[in-house]
């Protein structure tokens, strides 16, 4: 059981809480001409909320999709300070990150909250990108597969398999995020294979079609090796997505997947 050969790899840039109007415009001015020539890879960018509309305008003539980094558990209503999925869809978002480890660790999002956000994203017509991954302590105590499976099960139990595979899964080991310490291609592939097999135990064909991205210190010089692993279908890129040439090189590394 491996990824379907017909599926395009997907690379998503997560800008986190970085950028400014001027910096974003400069980044896109350098980035878009380079990635417009790439084929066989889908690219999306997730700027912070205040810049979504402006970035949407700047992406208008490109094939690059827009995504948000978070959404409310609720669609609309009296929730001061929250941003609803319907609004994100309205301003042109296609993707939304759900359950990023920074939200889980720093903002107390538990599995139930993440599952609710995943369901709300689908209701709003967005593609949720479900982030899962273990901490260093959990890896060292041999719990990686159990943690990832529990995070997936929480969403499966809330929305069912058919809806789960309408989303994208991103494996982001917490110890590799922003640390410069990337999972080796073998370590990443082992967890991706586990996720694929877990999906296949529910439905074989849908498991092959589901995109599973790797995130955690992906850089221009390690992207190709990671993306060539049989169960890795692209990447979720933090720091390196803020540099036009690095991100373009990462997108380019995702272009061609050797058939295995
Ligand atoms: P880095 O690429 O900076 O490690 O961040 C990964 C990440 O958290 C993407 O969502």
Automatic annotation (TrEMBL):
It comes from the Bacteria. It is an enzyme of class 5 (isomerase). The keyword Iron does not apply. Substrate binds at residues 14-16, 178, 217, 238-239. The active site is at residues 100, 172. Its EC number is 5.3.1.1. InterPro entries: Aldolase_TIM, TIM_sf, TrioseP_Isoase_bac/euk, Triosephosphate_isomerase, Triosephosphate_isomerase_AS. It catalyses: D-glyceraldehyde 3-phosphate = dihydroxyacetone phosphate. Pfam families: TIM. CDD domains: TIM (cd00311). Belongs to the triosephosphate isomerase family. Involved in the gluconeogenesis. Catalyzes stereospecifically the conversion of dihydroxyacetone phosphate (DHAP) to D-glyceraldehyde-3-phosphate (G3P). This is Triosephosphate isomerase. It comes from Pseudomonas germanica.
